[in-house]
Every structure is written in C-alpha cells, then in structure tokens.
C-alpha cells in the first residue's frame, strides 16, 4: 500500500484538523483531484492527490487533528517503507517515584506541591493540578482539594479541545507571553474635528503611517535567536479581526501608498474572505505592525499582545464624549482612546512615546 502523509503546509504549521473528506475507500481517483479539506491556523485548505489510484484506507475521520508527516490516505499498490522519523502521540514513561514527600510540579505561577498519591488521584479523576487551589499546610494540595475540583468539573461538563484558529491563538499568545518584554503606553486623541461619518479604521491606518514615519523602530521585526532587528521600509498592517472561530490577523499591504477608498475596499474584501474562510495564506503573514480596533466592540484601554517577530501593536478603544479643557474652558469633546504595546527588548520608551504622539497628531487633524 502506498501511503500519502500530511505534507508540509508552510508557515511553520505543524498540524491541521480534517474538515471534510472528498473521497471514500474504494474510489478510483485521478492525480491532483481534491482528497481532503483541512483547517489550519490560517485557513481551510484543499489537499490534492499526489497521484492516481484506488483509495484503500483513510487514516482519520473528520474532526481529528493530524500532524505533519502523519498518514492521511493509503492507496492500492506496492508497499512503501514507513517514515521512521515521524512519531505521533509518542509517550515517554519516566522512573517510578516512591517517596511520599510533596513534590513540586512545574507551573506558570510557581511550583505546585502534592504527594505522588494525590497526583495519582488527580490523573485518575482527570484533574489538572494547575486548576487546584491548595488548602494544606505550606501550600500542599490535598485529596479533598482534588475531589472538590473533580466535582466542579463533572458539573461543568467535558473539556472541549481547542481546534483550528483558537488552538493557534492559544499557542501564539503563549509564545508572546513567554518571549516578549511587553510594555504599554496609553493616551487619548481629540477627534472632535472629524466629520460625523468618518471611517475610523481608515483614519487609524493613516495615523499608523504617520507614527511609523516618525519612529521607524516600531515598524520592524526582531529575531530573538540572533538578537537582530530588521527595520522594514514598507508598512504592512495586520488587522485584528474578531470572529466566532477566533482571532484572525489578515494583512493590509503597503498602506502608506493607498488612498482612503482603496483602503476601505481592501478592508471590506479582507473581512469577507476571512468570514468565508477562503482568504489566501499569503494574506495572513508578513505584517510589520498590528492594529486592533477593539473599540468597535467595547472597552477604552487595553494591553494588546505583541506577536513576534513584530514589535508593536496599536489598540483603539471606544470613541466617547469627555469633558476636556479647550482654550482654558471646559468643553465636551469626542475622544478616541489609544493603547500602544511594544516589545521593550527592541523599542525604547521614548521611541514608543514619540510614535504615539505622531499618531495622535495625525488623528487630531480634521481632514
């Protein structure tokens, strides 16, 4: 049997979820005929057959997550040598621990103390010790602690594994949290001079261009393994889009050289493509800076997450009215809150502040 394995999908993607099979066991198919649709962190992708033949076996059903190099389809024909370099689901068993002293368990918030018996009970009841609040002396997790959490989990129901976009979001946020030295500065832009029908996102894109021209250090990529910075001349803005499936960040290319009408048309097309889950993979990579207009949903200020290799993200909060001094007298003005997060490994506080000042100056223009 000839075995076709999940190919390298590019972009560093190591897994995909099977969405729909387009063939069945026994089908006679042609080369390049669609075999299966898979969902990655980027989009839904159709994988074609590498050759013609009769399908003898499908190795997984829809809804399963498959790693790159894992078998997908078996075709009738001469047997091929298995790829010994691909190991899926391998489990390594360590030495048995016999001591009953409370042992620390690795945890993001510090060591977790629990005896082997309590840890064994947690495994039996499928309770993650990171979820348990200890009640024993010196912060030791007790049997009662584990049983209490197990009861709560039983009432809540089974956990649902994160798939597709949400799985990628969890991985990316964990990477950002562990790697980026994040800092955030906030300020407000007085947009009272704007027309009532002003396009907020397009104006924000124009202001981002002004910020990048004032401080190019924020339109950059940082290579942490070599401690090298790349200043990028073209401004390609990742636009954070919130959808039920999770967070998408499609990229608006070369925003500095596009007029407002072209930017709006591009934003509309980009959202439609993302919602249809048919956006090309190349439109979800390579941004040099990121914009999150979360104020369209709610909230004034935030600490947006910087995703490597970029070094900055600008967040725009909810436009609201605020009492502010104007020419020495109080006046009600329309205000746009701004939150700029940056990677302090690469960007200085002064650079971030000057960038934000340039953004605000541009936003406060009435044109």
Automatic annotation (TrEMBL):
Keyword field: Acyltransferase, Lipoyl, Transferase
Cofactor field: (R)-lipoate
Domain Peripheral subunit-binding (PSBD): 113-150
Top EC group: transferase
Annotated ranges, domain Lipoyl-binding: 1-76
GO molecular function terms noted in the UniProt entry: acyltransferase activity
InterPro entries in the cross-refs: 2-oxoA_DH_lipoyl-BS (IPR003016), 2-oxoacid_DH_actylTfrase (IPR001078), 2-oxoacid_DH_E2_comp (IPR050743), Biotin_lipoyl (IPR000089), CAT-like_dom_sf (IPR023213), E3-bd_dom_sf (IPR036625), PSBD (IPR004167), Single_hybrid_motif (IPR011053)
Record-stated family: Belongs to the 2-oxoacid dehydrogenase family.
Protein name: Dihydrolipoamide acetyltransferase component of pyruvate dehydrogenase complex
């Amino acid at each position: 049997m000839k075995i076709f394995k999940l190919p390298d999908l590019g972009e560093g993607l190591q897994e995909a979820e099977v969405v729909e099979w387009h063939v069945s066991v026994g089908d006679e198919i042609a080369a390049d005929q669609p075999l299966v649709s898979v969902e990655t962190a980027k989009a839904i992708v159709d994988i074609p057959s590498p050759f013609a033949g009769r399908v003898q076996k499908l190795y997984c059903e829809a809804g399963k997550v498959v790693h790159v190099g894992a078998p997908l389809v078996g075709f009738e024909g001469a047997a091929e040598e298995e790829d010994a370099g691909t190991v899926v689901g391998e489990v390594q068993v360590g030495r048995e621990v016999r001591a009953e002293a409370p042992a620390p368990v690795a945890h993001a918030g510090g060591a977790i103390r629990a005896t082997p018996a309590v840890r064994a009970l947690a495994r039996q009841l499928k309770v993650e010790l990171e979820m348990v609040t200890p009640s024993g002396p010196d912060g030791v997790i007790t049997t009662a602690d584990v049983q209490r959490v197990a009861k709560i989990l039983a009432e809540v129901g089974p956990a649902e594994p994160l798939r597709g976009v949400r799985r990628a979001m969890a991985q990316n946020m964990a990477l950002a949290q562990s790697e980026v030295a994040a800092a955030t500065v906030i300020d407000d832009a007085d947009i009272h001079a704007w027309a009532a029908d002003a396009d907020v996102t397009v104006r924000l894109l124009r202001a981002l261009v002004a910020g990048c021209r004032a401080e190019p250090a924020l339109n950059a990529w940082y290579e942490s393994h070599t401690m090298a910075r790349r200043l990028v001349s073209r401004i390609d803005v990742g636009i954070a889009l919130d959808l039920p499936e999770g967070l998408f960040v499609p990229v608006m290319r070369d925003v500095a050289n596009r007029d407002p009408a072209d930017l709006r048309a591009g934003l509309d097309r980009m959202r439609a493509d993302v919602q249809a889950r048919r956006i090309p993979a190349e439109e979800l990579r390579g941004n040099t800076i990121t914009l999150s207009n979360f104020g369209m949903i709610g909230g004034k200020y935030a600490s947006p997450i910087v995703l490597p290799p970029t070094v900055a993200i600008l967040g725009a909060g909810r436009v609201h009215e605020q009492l502010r001094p104007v020419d020495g007298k109080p006046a009600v003005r329309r205000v746009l809150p701004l939150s700029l997060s940056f990677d302090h490994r690469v960007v200085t506080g002064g650079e971030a502040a000057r960038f934000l000042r340039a953004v605000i100056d541009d936003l406060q223009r009435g044109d």
